[in-house]
Amino acid sequence: MAEGAEKGEDLRRSLLAIVAEEGMVKDRTIGVDDQLADLGIESADFVMILMAIEEKFGVYVPVDESLTEAKTVGELLDVVVAHIEEHRRQQVAS
Amino acid sequence: MRPIAITGLGAVSACGLGADRLWRAARDGHSAVGEVLFPRIHRQQVKQMARIADADFATLLETAKPRFQDRTAILGIAAAREAVARAGLGPEDFGERCGVVVGSGLGGAETIEQGYIRFVEDPASRSDVMAIPKLMANSTASWIAMSFKATGPTLCISTACSSATQSIGLAADLIRAGIVDRCLAGGAEALLIDGAFAAWEALHVMTTSHCRPFSRERNGMVLGEGAGVVVLESMEAAEARGATVLAELVGYATNADANDLLRPDPVGATTCIRKAVDSSGLDPSRIGYVNAHGTGTVANDLTETTALRTVFGDAFDGLAVSSTKPIHGHALGAGGALEFIVTVEALRNRIAPPTINFLGVDPKIGFEPVPNVARPFTADAAMSNSFAFGGINASLVVALPGRG
Q: Is B298 within 8 Å of A43 when comparing Cβ atoms?
């Protein structure tokens, strides 16, 4: 599959790896139920994660309410997946 | 604190040349935000910004020295000229009893960028010999001092989005301390160019749609550029030369969160606003309008609302609060000066300009910040806030002459 074209579970796995890498989570074994605060992921890490997602998937995710509300890794992935899907819909439309 | 006379206002912004253009755009809710595309950005995600019209900048270039002045300085000098003319200052009013406090976040951003592009593309080429004096952050302040022969202290405060607000506050402190009789104070910023904009994009704090401060569905800020300069004088100095006092600066405070470089802290913002109100000696209920920092990011607007609600207490419900950033853009190091000028005009006209693009109340914020259309207010005092990256807060309080 082409880089940045993953769907479904592949997409979430790919995003999970980005969160671990860019959030500099020590053991890199993170799960969707982990609290972002427990992993030490703070405001600056969010920006790194969003930049990496933009590079890989070409989607700009602004720090909006849904993102700041995300408390767990899974909630963060939900927000990002929604942005990626919306971005892909717009690309198809145009 | 002892009131300081505000006798001149000058502004250059995407709303046009002059403080009056800025004020009318703010009052009428006419946004200067539009789409700008940068050829060097490979994949530009954010396209909305408030950039000064090319025709307006061309007008400024007619009297500028672009070989020696970055765009930032050209904007700053134009704003200073307007402020000085409005104040009616003559050559005898400058000299060592006049200071200059004009800040900037990045300084000569365009000169920096052009210099690096030239250096990388052709390392053998000759560098712009004036690059350093053009790009240094104090260039604008020094050009203003040179333009009017103001030989008192010249200072440049570089504290990101609080630069201009702190500059105006410090200028008032210098006057109150008796170090000078008057000051030209404000800020200038011009970084809407490819590389600097791409760096801003990377922070992911800008919206790809519309900047809608305090609104539900807000998702970021919109950048702007410009310069704002005001003339501040001791009441005695203003009186001695028979100057018209537009308004009085009656309160100022600044502090630091000392907590996080990016995330604002409600405790720091609350303390700053409270100290500014306290320094004015006014009961919070006497303040009728607040020009909020109101960037339109989730974090700032929530923090600022918490701070205002805490300080104003029961008076918060009657307070007109608005952010005019969706109109003139967030002009960063110039932002505090543009917004201070809007605040002074709002007070003089007793009209609270609107927060445009407002869709509805965010339940977490729970109030309406003068939504979409201006509204009159009756109080004699108003406030302007700036909260910067780096956790630096600054608030100014102004009052109508004799009402402080």
A: no
> A42: distance to nearest CA of chain B, Å?
9
Query: Active site includes B330?
Result: yes
Report d(CA B144, CA B375) in Å as an integer. 36
What is the spatial distance between Cα B369 and Cα B49, in angstroms, rounded to a whole number? 22
Whole-number Å distance between alpha carbons of B222 and B30: 15
Say yes or no for a CB contact (<8 Å) between A65 and B298. yes
Contacts of A47 in chain B (CB under 8 A): 202-204, 262
| B199: nearest CA partner in chain A | A51
Identity of the residue in A46, A51, A62 whose CB atom sits nearest the CB atom of B206:
A62
How far is residue B223's CA from residue B197's CA, in Å, rounded to a whole number?
Answer: 9
Select from B57, B76, B91 the least CA-distant residue to B144: B76
pTM of the model: 0.95
Q: Whole domain around residue A11: which residue ranges?
A: 2-93
Is B234:B181 a contact under the CB 8 Å cutoff? yes
Model confidence pLDDT, tens digit, residues B8-42: 999 999 999 999 999 999 999 999 999 999 999 99
- For the segment B261-275, the average pLDDT, to the nearest whole number, is 94
Q: Which residues contact A70 (CB under 8 A, 6 or more apart)?
A: A36, A76, A78, A79
ipTM of the complex model: 0.80
- From the list A43, A60, A64, which residue is nearest B260 (CB)? A43
Tokens of residue B142, six digits: 């020094």
| Count, residues in chain A | 94
Question: Are the C-beta atoms of B288 and B281 separated by less than 8 Å?
Answer: no
Supply the Cα-derived Rg of chain A in whole angstroms. Answer: 13
Closest CA–CA distance from residue A73 to any residue of chain B (Å): 19
At which residue do the structure tokens 């505000």 appear?
A: B6
Measured N-to-C along each axis, helices B109-121 and B71-87 cross at an angle, to the nearest 10 degrees, of 160
Cα–Cα distance, B28 to B327 (Å, whole number): 10
H-helix or E-strand spanning residue B93: none
A62/B220 Cβ within 8 A: yes
Tell the burial category of B361 from Cβ atoms under 10 Å away from its Cβ (0-12, 13-18, 19+).
middle
Tally of domains within chain A: 1
Spatial separation of the C-alpha atoms in residues A37 and B216, rounded to whole Å: 25
Residues of chain A with pLDDT under 70: 1-3, 27-28
CA distance B315 to B247: 23
- What CATH code is carried by the domain that includes residue A14? 1.10.1200.10
